[in-house]
Amino acid sequence: MACCIPLRVAVAMKAEIRQRLIVGLGNPGPGYATTRHNIGFMAVDRLVRQYGLVACRSRINAEIAEGDITGVRALAAKPMAYMNRSGDPVSLIVQNHGIQCEDMVVIHDDIDLAYERLKIKEKGGDGGHNGLRSLIDALGTDEFVRVRMGVGRPEGDIGVVDYVLEEFDARQRTMLEPFLSRAVEAAVAILCEGAKDAMNRFNRKP
Fold first, then answer.
1. Number of domains in the chain
2. DSSP state string for 91-143
3. Residues 99/93, Cβ–Cβ less than 8 Å
4. By the 8 A CB rule, do 47 and 106 touch?
5. Angle between helix 87-96 and 130-139 (nearest 10)
6. Which of 25, 63, 109, 110 lies 20 to 30 angstroms, CA to CA, from 176?
7. What are phi and psi of 66, to 5 degrees?
8. pTM of the model
């Protein structure tokens, strides 16, 4: 006799095995590694170490690791194209691994938030961020969750581009490690609890 699985159980089982994707935005190369614009890369590196994700071979122009994050199957990726072209490798990852865009979390720098401020956003425009613009163009949708990591705005005569491509100043470096830890915690909360519950926890001022 065939076993009939109730629809609600089947849907829950299917949801459990869906592959999730966490993307950090940044620029490739050692010259950019410790700049404000690469804070998304830094957060993904910390996530990979913290959860023991394993690097996997890929022909896609991205560094990809995979594994289990508190019971959730997930990929973590850093596109190795420059920020304004990062959408193409991310689009290939989504296609090749059958990932739904609503199951993707993107971690990126945000000059509209004060340094050390973190906000989760479910969807929306690019806000002038070249990496987000590239993702939206390549994916054809803005419906993916973002973890916005505030790097603050420049003071004095320095332009925005120069500012985000500079390294963190001495004061900011003292707070960087706990900031990265909180971003990882927020991304994991999105995977495990859903974006709305994670927003209630992390969108308040620290």
1. 1
2. HHHHHHTT--GGGEEEEEEETTS-TT-EEEESS---TT-HHHHHHHHHHT---
3. yes
4. no
5. 40
6. 63
7. -140, 160
8. 0.89
**Calpha distance 82→79 (Å, rounded):** 8
Q: Which pLDDT score, from 0 to 100, does residue 157 have?
A: 82
Q: List CB contacts of 159: < 8 A, sequence separation 6 or more.
A: none
> Per the domain annotation, does 11 fall within a domain?
no
| Radius of gyration, alpha carbons of the chain | 17
What's the confidence (pLDDT) of residue 206?
62
CATH number at 118 reads 3.40.50.1470
Active site residues: 37
Tell me, yes or no, whether 2 lies in a domain.
no
Strands 104-110 and 145-150: parallel
Structural domain including 165 reads: 16-202
Terminal C-alpha separation, the chain? 57
